Amino acid sequence: MQKKNAIGRFPGFLMLAGTLALISAPVVAVKATTSLQNSPKAVLDEAWQIVNQDYVDPTFNQVNWQQVRQDLLSRSYTSPEEAYSALRDALKRLNDPYTRFMNPEEFKAFSAETSGELVGVGMQLKLEETTKALTVVKPIENSPALRAGIQSGDKILKIEGQSTQGMTVEDAARMIRGEANTQVRLLMQRQQQAPFELVLTRAQIAVPTVESAVRTEGQNRVGYIRLSEFNSHAAEQMEKAIKQLEDQNVNQFVLDLRGNPGGRLDQAVAIARMWLDEGDIVRTVDRNGNAEQVQANKTALTDLPLAVLVDGGSASASEILTGALKDDQRAVVVGTQTFGKALVQEVHPLSDGSCINVTIAHYFTPSGLDINHKGITPDVVVSLTDQQKQSLSGHPDALGTSQDPQYLQAIAQLHGAGQPISQNAPSR
User: Fold this and answer.
1) What's the CA gap between 108 and 339, in Å, rounded?
2) Active-site residue 327, yes or no?
3) Each residue's pLDDT tens digit, 217-266
4) Where a domain ends, among 181, 206, 231?
5) 196 and 298 co-located in one domain
6) pTM score over 0.85
7) Which of 341, 402, 404, 427 is flagged as catalytic?
8) Among 78, 114, 228, 356, which has the minimal tally of Cβ within 10 Å of its Cβ?
């Protein structure tokens, strides 16, 4: 197989998180010998050869990788599961938590979760605190639920004739989800009005990964954007949010990457280019020392002042974006030390429907900083107390408001004050 550099092949299938990726890679063609075909050993050899060719550390953590192949293929396996277990044990010897194997069921669930899409009717649900009634938090944009007129606060009394009393959100979601173009029947109630029935047709829906709002802070209109992950729809949703906020005459931005574990490399680069008109974004280096620099390409959507919020949950793709904006002096970074993951993975589907996720490169920020196991130090460090963390975790609607100390410091930095503004500062 021809070897390509990491950035040259990133569109669509390179990932920057241990738990997030988009999978659209072609199956890597690895020929198995006749004796291995149609046996669990075929997949073992396929996975072994991918690691042998692409893994970032050519010493394989001082493991004799050729001997590993011999060991894997010399055994007898009574089931695919037994072979999968042997492969997982072999991968553990690399001491790399991001190089891992997923069986077909895990890969299918992983793909559905990380593609940024779901099949359903498009509602976020919760159990009301006092009554425990199954309640709609909000309908998702461009969803069957929104088109049917479902509103925040509506209660779901029955799903396909079954009462939701005592039902968990997870159980309700499983009942509502299904194949695209099939129907689900719901009995709804709005406030104290009479219950009404809706029949919704399930559809493929892009999961929102970007939330945005205009905050009025003194004389300034702040465009607040929260990005939860870098899935396949992150860049398009970010572009839409920036343009909408610009149309609403904001004069500065706060980009919230707290708790964002990462995702697709191409999405991180695309979003960086929305904020940066020029400058470097990231440099990757593969196992052979081949390096490639990715740069801005004069496609920035705005040059308004920007602050970025990060914390220990900001990892991988979040750190690429943060590092680029910080090193190129495009934004002031506020919060706490980021996670510290500077490795790039590639997802390889295997011939039996399973997959192997392999670390193939190391990345560096524009200034040459290696953040692996270190993270990025914000320009302005603002730690939260345990009580503040608990409060924001329990009330996510308070993020990016006057109840959020890190957001307040970001606003102070944008204002040039250098000190947190009053907790009573107007924010809506």
Assistant:
1) 27
2) yes
3) 999 999 999 999 999 899 999 999 999 999 999 999 999 999 999 989 99
4) 206
5) no
6) no
7) 341
8) 78
